[in-house]
Design a protein that fits this description.
Blueprint lengths: L2 H27 L7 E4 L3 E8 L12 H22 L5 H23 L4 E9 L2 E2 L5 H38 L3
Antiparallel strand pairs: 1-2, 2-3, 3-4
Length: 176
Amino acid sequence: MSQRADRFWTIFLTTVLADVASKRFAVSLLSPPYLPHDIIDDVLRFTLAYNPDGAMSFSLGPSSRWWFVVLSLGTLFVLAYMYRQTPREDRMQIASIALICGGAVGNLLDRVRSARGVVDFIDIGIGTHRFWTFNLADLAVTLGTAMLTWILCVRAATEERRAHALATTRAFDEPS
C-alpha cells in the first residue's frame, strides 16, 4: 500500500472505530436518554440523545433517515474522487478527506442500524445556553471540512496570485 493510502486508512479507521466505541460507551453508560452527566461542571456534559435528522437536527421530513443515507453515500463518492485526485504529498488534504469520510461512515452506520437515529452525547454549553449535542463523527466531519475548506481556499488564492503575477509579467514583456 502507498504512503497516501496508509495515511488515509489509518485516519479513516481510527475515526470510525473511535466513533463506534464512544457511541457504545454512551448507550451503555449514559442511559436513560436526555439525562445530563456533568463532566466539567455544566460546561461539558455527556447526555445520551438520538438524532433521526441531520446536523443540528436539520430535518427533511418523515423520510429524513433515508435522505441522509443517500446524501452520505453521495458525499462519500465525491470524496473518493477528490482523494484519487489528491497528490500523495498533500498530507493535509488526505487527512481532511479521511476525517470527513470516517465521520460520515460513523453516522451512516447509526442511520442504517436504527430508526432512532444517530447517537449523540457530547453536550457543551454554559447553564441553559447549550450547543447542540454531537458525537465524535460530527467532530471529525466538522474538523475535516474546516481543514479542507482552508486548504482549498489557500490553494485558490495562491493560484489567483500566480495568475495575476504571470499576467502582469506578460504585460511588461510585450513590446509597446
